[in-house]
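Example record

One chain of 206 residues, shown exactly as stored in the release files.
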Amino acid sequence: LMKDELLKEGPYNVIIVDWSDWNGFPYAQAVSNARVVGAHVGKLIRLLMENKGARAQSFHLIGHSLGGQVSGWAGERIPNLGRITGLGIDEPIGDLDFYPNGGKKQPGCFYQYDFNFTYGFVDPIEDYIANPCDHSRANYLFVDSINRCTFLAVQCESYDSFTSGKCEEKGPLRSIMGLRAQKIPELSGSRRFYLNTDDESPYCME
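Predicted structure tokens for this chain:
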């Protein structure tokens, strides 16, 4: 889906990295594998730069969950890389961090299981196993942002503050979420941006 929408939007060269044989259980091994895959992606980018004249600034790496870490490891090896988008990432790690519907439970998804793991490296995978619908929603929101939707998000300290209208009272900073997100120079305060979405595609509410 994402590849098709990107090719509709512009004359991009889309490279898809299939590392499905390396990102399963055990999770600790998948994390280790992500570093290796990221190194290979970095090598490919450098090869394209050295042999085809590609510019580092022209690359946009998009990864979901551990794929975001793959993108990060690749980016460490390429100075001045254009952009990295991590989808389905819990912690704030970017220049801008977007939390649709608060970032956890998504409308239209139904919680299936209620349990806790008791051994290592569980927090990043518990929500996914309990309900992969929530975890994968970021992919579909990004796809909609390419050609279907303009997602306008509001800078705020928390989702509770956002839903109670406290951020609106202060004339908040706004940013577009998705493909057209832009880095905000000299951003002060929270890098967190919140918005609500619909429960099915197109997910934009306006």
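Notes: Confidence is low (pLDDT under 50) at residues 115-122.
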